[in-house]
C-alpha cells in the first residue's frame, strides 16, 4: 500500500495516553489531520483544551483536529463511525494495568479492541494503513532474566508468559497477564491481516516499544498516589526508549511505503541504573542538583567496559531494524533524563527535594 502523507486524516486511539498524546502532537506538527479517540467526554475536553493552547485557531477552522468519544473499544462496531473519511489509523489504546485478578480482564479488551478496529477498517475503503502499538512484552519475558544474555528481534514472541498464565491463571503476576494480552492481541491482529489482506484496502504494521521515558504532554496525578518504591539496584537492567522516538517511529511507519506489513522494535538498548547515575553527571544546574543521585550509589569502581562484562545475564531488545529502515536515531540517556527532570521540575513535582 502507498505511504500516507500530510494532510491525510489519521485516527489515533488512546489519544490521551502517554504514547497517544505524543503521536497526536507529532502528527499535527507534521501537517496531518487528526481524529483523536478517547473514552470519555471529560478526556475529550482536556485533550482539546491542551491542543488549543498549543496551536492556532486555524487548526480547528480547517478541521485538522477533532475528538471523538469511544466509551468501550471492545464493543462491536465501536470504531465504525470514527473511521469515516480516515486514511490512516494509529492504534495505541490498550489496558495498561497490573493489578487485575482475572487474566481475561487483560486479554479480552486488548484482543477485542484490536480486532474490532481491524474489522471496522475493513468496512472503509479509504483506510490505507494501520499502525498498531504493541510492546517488547509481546517479544520476550520482561521480568525474568534469561540464563545467558540474548538478543531479541522482531522475529521473537514472549511465549513463556503466555504459557505461565495459561498454567497458573489468576496466580500469575500482573506483568505476565499484561504481557499475555499484548502477545495475544498482536498475534490475533497479524492472523486477521494475513488471512484477509487480499481483500483489505489497508496494510498493517506494528511498533513494539521498550520501557518508555520522557516528558508528558498531559499530567497523570495518579502516578503519585502510591508510596514511592525504594531505589532500584544499580545493576537492574532495562531496555529504554525516549517517548519522542516512539512517536516519531509511528509517523515514519505511516509515511514510508516499505514499512507496510512489518514489525519494528523501538529500543535504544539496555542500560542499568549506574548508567543513569553517570548520565546525570553530564547535566548542569536547574533541578539536577536536587536529585541526589550521588547519595544513592557510590561512584563507578570498574571501567565501563569491565562493568558491562560483569553485568548479569539480560535481554537485549534490538532496535536496529528501525534505525536501518526508518532512519531512527535514538536519543541518548542524558537527553532523556534531562527531559524527564525538566518536565517534572516545571510541574512542581520536585519541590519535596528542595527541603
Automatic annotation (TrEMBL):
Q: Which UniProt keywords apply?
A: Oxidoreductase
Has the keyword Oxidoreductase been applied to this entry? Answer: yes
In the record, what terms sit under GO molecular function?
oxidoreductase activity, acting on the CH-OH group of donors, NAD or NADP as acceptor
Start and end residues of each NAD-dependent epimerase/dehydratase domain = 10-259
InterPro entries assigned: Epimerase_deHydtase, NAD(P)-bd_dom_sf, NAD(P)_dehydrat-like
Annotated membrane-spanning segments are none
The family line of this record is: Belongs to the NAD(P)-dependent epimerase/dehydratase family. Dihydroflavonol-4-reductase subfamily.
Query: Where does this protein have coiled-coil stretches?
Result: none
Domain of life where this protein originates: Eukaryota
Give a yes or no for keyword Glycoprotein in this entry. Answer: no
Identification of the protein by name: NAD-dependent epimerase/dehydratase domain-containing protein
